[in-house]
Amino acid sequence: MRDRVLIIEDEKDVRDMLRLNLKTGGFDVLEAHNGAEGLAIAKAELPSVVILDLMMPEMSGMEVCRALRRNPATSRIPILMLTAKSTEGDKVAGLEVGADDYVTKPFSPRELLLRVRAVARRQPDQGVSKPAPVKAGGIELDRSSMTATIGSKKLVLTSTEYRLLDLLARRAGTILSREVLLSEVWGYQANLDTRTVDTHVRRLRDKLGKAGAVIQTVRGSGYRLGS
Description:
Blueprint: E1 4-8, H1 12-24, E2 28-32, H2 35-45, E3 49-53, H3 61-70, E4 79-83, H4 88-96, E5 101-104, H5 109-120, E6 134-136, E7 139-142, E8 147-150, E9 153-154, H6 159-170, H7 178-186, H8 195-208, E10 215-218, E11 222-225
Parallel strand pairs: 1-2, 1-3, 3-4, 4-5
Antiparallel strand pairs: 6-7, 7-8, 8-9, 10-11
Helix pairs in contact: 2-3, 4-8, 6-7, 6-8
């Protein structure tokens, strides 16, 4: 079964270009020309990935992203934010409301496909054998369902946040550079602003609450999960 990508974009020319390249790249495509329509389609169809334009009239991409993350049915869908804004503040703002990644307009179709394929892979393992749980720093991770718990509390994580926590937990005590995290969690080489990693770590710590202190910052080197 092919992955389905939902494009939420108000500019028809951009939607047409995205549709053509995604279909050529092997994806099925759903489309919405505004945020409200996109939310309705996402809830009904549960696509593999959402490509979300930041600047749209009436309902912005930020509002759509927040709504998708609040809804349990759509909270785990990877979101690739598409933006004409290139300042660091705009990028970080998109990541902080729940986007997994971003692409700045104008963009190359090849880069976009690489990003979409990378986030589409962040799904639960479908193998026959059930992988053993990972335990570290008081956190338990079920790799078959991509869920994490602290005691009896189940954490509400996006797929990218889960993969980040899983990697840190599996290599507990080891310092992982931002470049390594970008490569192994985001799925491509470090051609992305490393503030992406910092923003996701900050969000992850917030969701872990008091246990967030187990994710330690090693100044000038990266992050590690301690005890």
